[in-house]
Design goal:
The structure holds 2 protein chains of 2 kinds.
Chain A (H helix, E strand, L loop, with lengths): L1 E2 L2 E2 L9 E3 L2 E2 H21 L8 H21 L7 H17 L12 H23 L17 H46 L5 H42 L2
Antiparallel strand pairs in A: 1-2, 3-4
Chain B lengths: L12 H11 L10 H4 L7 H30 L2 H24 L2 H7 L1
Helix pairs in contact in B: 3-4
The chains are: A mainly alpha, B mainly alpha.
């Protein structure tokens, strides 16, 4: 909040213990997991031929991710569906929960997104090695290149492969953090301008309007970034399975 | 239609209709799938710019981290970092190329 006339936009990302070493970030992760479980369990309990609202939502969630897997990875994609589904909905619910006031966005911490990314890249590598064995390392050797250039090109390919770790994690983290910093800044504008006197109420109202628009924008970014994370995981899995 | 060979010089009705429709821009080209665009589909120019920036920088970050680590390991302070900065820059450009390269030809070239 606006403490002492300055805008403290970053304190919202501070971890606060809820119970011992269990922080509000961990709490939101548990809440996200329970919400996903609840949506699927309660939604699919009626098992109706004509689905109700909750069942339709659960079925749509299932079919969207299944389509993402099979279209991107190919028919083999069904094997990775549970992983991509879990990843997509964990990130989506984490992003969306962060939009609520007083809630914490656990995806706005690089530690969380980097951990997810390390897991994704590690899994992709393990999958590729399990399917292709030693042949996997031909992934780093571009085709149709003179042998003399290979000592230069292979390290570049390896670095490009490893840069997924940073690009995937930073994209999610940066988007979520930037959005929440913007919300905090404009929220502080409303308070500061509103307190500064009646002539500043017009710009204060403008800031409030910007914040309303930003909340809508945040909903878009939350969904889009979860989708991008999942689809990139699928593309990496495609590369691991097909190894072009 | 093939039973009247004399008449078959002009293309069939379906073909002419398709050509006319595409001339008028009535048939939208099939939307690029996310496979083709690497998840870029439906992103704003801002999104694309951010994406390219992250791809460029992330390769550099990884490269500098590795170079610095190896330098500390071998005690060759500036040499490997310098080499890896160059390699990382190249890898970043490779990432961006991957992002915009026409995917199908890559797959067929395999």
């Amino acid at each position: 909040m606006a403490a002492g006339g300055s805008i403290d936009a970053l304190s919202q990302f501070k971890l606060a213990p809820v119970l011992g070493g269990f922080t509000q970030s961990n709490l939101m992760m548990v809440v996200a997991g329970l919400l996903i479980f609840g949506l699927l369990w309660l939604g699919m309990r009626p098992r109706a031929m004509v689905p109700g609202r909750l069942q339709a939502a659960a079925e749509m969630a299932y079919e969207t991710v299944l389509g993402m897997c099979t279209e991107t990875i190919g028919p083999e994609g069904r094997a990775y569906f549970p992983f991509v589904f879990t990843l997509f909905f964990f990130i989506l619910f984490g992003n969306l929960l962060g939009v609520f006031p007083y809630f914490f966005t656990f995806t706005s911490h690089i530690a969380v997104t980097l951990a997810l990314t390390v897991f994704v890249v590690g899994l992709v590598t393990v999958v590729a090695i399990r399917i292709h064995g030693w042949h996997f390392f031909s992934y780093f050797v571009p085709q149709g290149v003179p042998v003399a250039l290979l000592p230069l090109l292979v390290p570049i390919e390896v670095l490009s492969y490893l840069s997924r770790l940073i690009s995937l994690s930073v994209r999610l983290f940066a988007n979520m953090m930037a959005g929440h910093v913007m919300l905090e800044v404009f929220g502080a504008f409303v308070v500061m301008l509103g307190a500064a006197g009646i002539i500043f109420w017009l710009p204060a109202g403008f800031s409030l309007a910007v914040n309303v628009a930003l909340i809508g924008f945040e909903l878009l970014v939350a969904t889009l970034q979860a989708y991008v994370f999942a689809i990139l995981t699928c593309i990496y899995l495609h590369d691991a399975v097909h190894l072009h | 239609m093939s039973e009247e060979p004399g008449e078959e010089e002009p293309p069939s009705f379906e073909e002419r209709l398709k050509a006319a429709r595409s001339r008028q821009g009535l048939d939208a080209p099939p939307p690029p799938t996310d496979r083709d665009t690497g998840g870029l589909g439906g992103m704003s120019p801002w999104g694309v710019g951010l994406r390219v920036g992250i791809e460029l920088v992330s390769a550099l970050v990884v490269a500098v981290a590795i170079g610095y680590g190896l330098d500390r390991l071998f005690g060759t302070r500036p040499v490997l970092t310098a080499v890896f900065v160059l390699l990382g820059g190249a890898a970043g450009v490779l990432n961006v190329w991957r992002l915009f390269a026409p995917r199908p030809t890559r797959d067929r070239g395999r």
